[in-house]
Design goal:
CATH architecture of the largest domain: Distorted Sandwich
Order of helices and strands: HEEHHEEHEEEEEEEEEEEE
Largest sheet: 10 strands, antiparallel
Shape: rod-shaped
CATH topology of the largest domain: Glucose Permease (Domain IIA)
Number of domains: 3
Strand content: 25-35%
CATH class of the largest domain: Mainly Beta
Length: 287
C-alpha cells in the first residue's frame, strides 16, 4: 500500500520540463507539469482533433478528395435515378389502370377494347393503340352469331310484349330504304336500294308458296310461322322453286342489273303480310 500511494503521489507531483540552447547553454523555455497533467493535455488534444474531424466531415466535402469514396454529387445522381424509376413505375401503373377502365367502358358500350403498347423502351409516355387480336373463342362466337346456329342473330326472336308476340326478322338485302310503307299512299311494303346483282335472302325460315315472273322481274312468296308471309319483288334471277323449304338468310334470288329489262335503277320491293293483313316491314326488320 505504501508503494502504491507513493506512485500516485509521483504521478501528480509537478516536475520541471524545459528546453535549452546546447550551444549557448541557456534555458529557452520551461514548464512545470505533472505526468497526470501531461496525459490529460494529450487526451484533450486528441479529443479536439476528433471533434474537428467530425465537423469537417459533417459540414465540408473533405471526404470527396479520398479515392473510392462516393461524392455527394454521385449520391445525389443515384437518388435522382431511383426517384425517376419510381415515378416511371407509378406512371406505368396509372396507365395500366386507365387502360383497364377504358376497356371496361368500351366493352359496356359494345365496342372493341384496345391495348396500349409502348412505342419505345426509353419513353413510356408515347403510347399507341392497337386493336386486340381476335382469339379462337371470339372467332367461334362470331361464327355462331352470324351463322344459322342456335344463337344466330338472324333467327327470329320471340318475346312477350303487351300480351302479343314481337318478331324480329333478318334484312333481305344490304342497302338503304328509298320508299317507306304507307297505307294512305297505298304503298304495301318498302323499297330497298341495293347493289346491282346483290343477293336477296329470306327473312326467316319458311316455305316457298309461289314463284311468278313478269315484265318487272320475278316475284317470290314465302310462308313463315304464325301466319306471316314475305313477298320479294323485282328479282332478276330466282334460285328457289315452289314448295322448297328455306332457312333464314338463304339466297332466293338476285337484284337486277342496270339496263336489264328496261331497268335503269333496279330496286327490291319487300312486303310482309300477317293473317291476310299487310304490315310495315320496318316494325319487324332493322335495315
Amino acid at each position: 500500500m505504501g508503494r502504491l500511494s507513493e506512485s500516485i503521489k509521483n504521478l501528480f507531483r509537478r516536475k520541471r520540463f524545459s528546453m535549452s540552447d546546447p550551444i549557448l547553454g541557456e534555458e529557452d523555455w520551461n514548464v512545470h507539469i505533472s505526468a497526470a497533467g501531461l496525459l490529460g493535455s494529450l487526451a484533450a488534444f486528441v479529443l479536439f482533433l476528433l471533434l474537428l474531424a467530425l465537423i469537417l466531415v459533417a459540414y465540408t466535402p473533405v471526404l470527396d478528395i479520398f479515392p473510392g469514396y462516393r461524392t455527394s454529387a454521385e449520391r445525389t445522381h443515384d437518388e435522382l435515378v431511383q426517384n425517376i424509376m419510381r415515378i416511371d413505375s407509378l406512371e406505368r401503373r396509372m396507365t395500366d389502370m386507365l387502360t383497364y377502365n377504358e376497356n371496361v367502358a368500351m366493352i359496356m358500350e359494345g365496342r372493341t377494347p384496345v391495348v396500349r403498347t409502348p412505342l419505345g423502351a426509353s419513353d413510356t409516355t408515347k403510347l399507341d393503340k392497337t386493336l386486340v387480336s381476335p382469339s379462337q373463342f371470339d372467332s367461334l362466337l362470331r361464327a355462331e352469331m352470324e351463322g344459322d346456329g342456335e344463337y344466330s342473330l338472324a333467327r327470329t326472336l320471340r318475346s312477350k310484349e303487351q300480351g302479343g308476340n314481337k318478331l324480329v326478322f333478318a334484312a333481305p338485302a344490304e342497302g338503304i330504304i328509298t320508299r317507306h310503307f304507307s297505307r294512305d299512299e297505298d304503298i304495301l311494303g318498302v323499297t330497298i336500294q341495293a347493289a346491282p346483282n346483290a343477293p336477296v335472302t329470306s327473312i326467316d325460315d319458311g316455305t316457298v308458296v309461289d314463284v311468278l315472273s313478269g315484265d318487272k322481274g320475278s316475284v317470290v312468296s314465302v310462308q313463315h310461322f304464325n301466319g306471316f308471309v314475305s313477298i320479294y319483288r323485282n328479282l332478276s334471277q330466282v334460285l328457289v322453286e315452289k314448295g322448297q323449304t328455306l332457312k333464314s338468310r338463304q339466297v332466293i334470288g338476285y337484284n337486277a342489273m342496270p339496263g336489264v329489262g328496261d331497268k335503269t335503277n333496279p330496286q327490291i320491293e319487300l312486303e310482309i303480310w300477317n293473317e291476310g293483313k299487310v304490315v310495315d316491314p320496318e316494325i319487324y326488320i332493322v335495315f
